[in-house]
Amino acid sequence: MNPARRCSALLSQLRVSSGRGAFPAAAASGPTETRRCHSVVLGGGRGVKGTCLHLGSDGAPISGAAPVCPMGASGSRLFGTLAQSLKSASLDQTEPDQEESPEQDVVECDPDQLLRECEEALRGRPARPHRALVLPSGVAHCHHKPNPPIRIMQWNILAQALGEGKDSFVRCPLDALNWQERKYLILEEILTYRPDILCLQEVDHYHDTFQPIMASLGYQGSFLAKPWSPCLDVEQNNGPDGCALFYRRSRFSLQATAHLRLSAMMLPTNQVAIVQTLKCQETGRRLCVAVTHLKARSGWEKLRSAQGANLLQSLRGITFQCGSSRHDEAPLGAVPLVVCGDFNAEPSEDVYRRFSSSALGLNSAYKLLSANGETEPAYTSWKIRPSGESCSTLDYIWYSHEALSVQRLLDIPTEEQIGPDRLPSYHYPSDHLSLLCDVSFREQPHRLM
To answer: Helices in 263-324 by DSSP H: which ranges?
Structure first.
């Protein structure tokens, strides 16, 4: 079977993997204009493009928990028919220096064909906002042949159970959130930009959607559920939400993985992080990548600060341990670090200051969109709930600025592009915007001698 037909088969299976039945067709009040895809595939021709707790990657629901929130007709099996058909097992905790098992019997999928089929499935919806890749402030565009850029995407994709059952987006029609179409909007965004590393939060369809789809596109994934996911309070939920980290197998090999349950004041919390040390196949250099999702809501600023401090402490130990335990690179020292996450914190919060002043030498990539290179975007999330309208900067890509340089950034949509009903909407699947940057390794001093 050729890759195009495999894509069709994969998507056909995906359409029936949502459990008890298909979603109803879009209501007559929904968008009627013909979908015009403004997106251009960017990213070159490389394909698809401190308490440490070892948790089971399935994040099994707590027995006896009473559902309290209704959810639309979007319930689905925790291990859907798509995942079963691809013989995809859930990801177990990986020990350092052990490569995660490559996916067996994976259906190979052509990313261009899959993108076209996503666009076809979404033809009744307006196109996503057009976003350009731009040069960061004060940085000359330069490609070093030995150090090709690494594309990194950060995105809180909005858990399906929370979107339909708990988050109360009062200006977003419930039909715009149905999983049968919203999953294609999410995949379309990913396929348009084709990151080498993908960091996601609020993933509650890992096993039945993202793991098999991303595996078919050449990615290796890892998932860590929240211990007490709020998704489990929603009727017909798809299991707990959590963080997911994907890397392209053709670009990286896995050196080590740590699954962390974040602590605050010596007590374990409900927030988690995945940390993976990867080795770039093209440069031989190592990169440590972390994904996390800190505590939400106002009033929890001190808890977020404590969680951030705990994560930074763990990252310092991981990056220096990996940096000093290898004999194939010089000089020894900390491995370059990228931290992606929904921090649920504005730049004025203490947790932001902790990261910006950390001994790890981290800088926020999206500050480089500003004219002075020192100001975060005005928003990365814009939503309307019963309590009012919220326009906030909550999401970040932190990077080791002495070891990595930012080459390009995906710009932020304008207020006009987002629209008066804000996010999510018929044309954008989450209440958070995706962030994306291309980073390159800086030349090491010993390699310049």
So the answer is: 301-324
Q: Which of 242, 302, 299, 296 is nearest to 274 (CA)?
A: 242
Nearest C-alpha neighbor of 264 from the set 308, 298, 229, 317: 308
Pairwise CA distance, residues 285 & 279, whole Å: 6
Specify the pTM. 0.81
**What are the structure tokens assigned to 229, written together?**
């996911």
Q: Kindly state whether residue 245 falls inside one of the protein's structural domains.
A: yes
Q: Give the Cα separation of 338 and 320 in Å (integer).
A: 14
User: pLDDT tens across 5-52, in order?
Assistant: 556 666 666 665 544 333 333 333 444 444 644 433 333 333 333 433
Domain of 229: which CATH number?
3.60.10.10
Provide the domain count of the chain.
1
d(CA 290, CA 197): 11
Distance of CA 324 to the CA centre of its chain: 29
Compute CA distances 317 → 288, 310, 312, whole Å. 12, 11, 9
Q: Is residue 364 domain-resident?
A: yes
The pLDDT confidence band at residue 313, using thresholds 50, 70 and 90, is: very high
In a domain, 194, yes or no: yes
Q: Is residue 71 part of a domain?
A: no
CA distances from 357 to 50, 194, 335, 341, 380 (A): 19, 31, 18, 17, 22
For 432, the domain range is: 3-15+47-60+77-91+103-448
